[in-house]
Request: fold
Amino acid sequence: MSETLSGITPDVPAIEKYLRFGTSKSIQNRNIQTREFTQTLFQLFGFPKQKYDYPVAAVTRLVDDDHDLEGVWMRADPVHLRPERDTVVLLDSSAFNLEKHEALILAADLQQVFTERDIELEAPTNSRWYIKLKQLPEISTTPIHEVVGNDIDKKSAIGDNKVLWDQLSNEAQMSLHNCPLNDEREQSGELPVNGVWLWGAGELPKAGKQLWSRVFADEVTTQGLSILTGSPYADLPDSLETLINQTEEQDDVLAVISFGLRHQQYFDHNGWHDFIGYLEEEWFTEIENLLKHNELDELILLTDKNKLSVTKSSYKKFWRRQKPFLTYCQ
Reply:
């Protein structure tokens, strides 16, 4: 949790109780790193650590455009780059409106930049664009959700070919800067789309084995990984109780709740407060009751830093002291 947001939180007794009785386990036991959300997702589905990027682009194309799955794909997501005092801060598509026809116009304007390098560009959705490469770029990039709200220089690609890809990004920025549509957007009060963020390059992995009986999520990478592994997928329900009602006894269920990320990225204090309150009310309040009535065998909470599990017997550890929620956010 960002220290900027950690100072405010609603009353969350159920979350505090879960944290009090939860058993901490080493994440390394299942080769899941605490470092990064994308890495955690791929390893939850059984895919090993990569030398460069996890192939997010190839995986999310299973959802966005499932034709032409061969080859190396890379995300080239439309962004707004905002100059600040000594930095350039990235805002993703959640910060601006981009209509389908606008996305197609901007992508067509960019096409020449990529065609000169024998790279194909496609824009199947307003927020997720793709380029097809002849070979792996041999750079390590930063996933866009890790860059939002940050200085792009501190999150730029690393590797032997870094200069070439930085140059391509700069040329894309110049092309978009000169696009008449961006002038129209600014005149109408919309943010211009003045850059693309290149990340997540790779080939589609071979289909892995199914590790989860059911998968529920609110983000597209999980959906793509579910398709790849043949795992039944559904959109994230509104509550834990609803999720339980959609599953069968003995199911191993993965639920990915990621929408709170945007509140942290944009330092949205009110949104973060509401998100924690939502988790308390809809996901944590019923945990103890579901365990007691054998509707839930175990619930494992995996964050970017911790892995905690509770079972029916966990709540018998009455000697454990309850601590304020914020003490777990340091």
Remarks:
- The radius of gyration is 21 Å.
- Residues 56-203 form one domain.
- The chain has twelve helices and eleven strands.
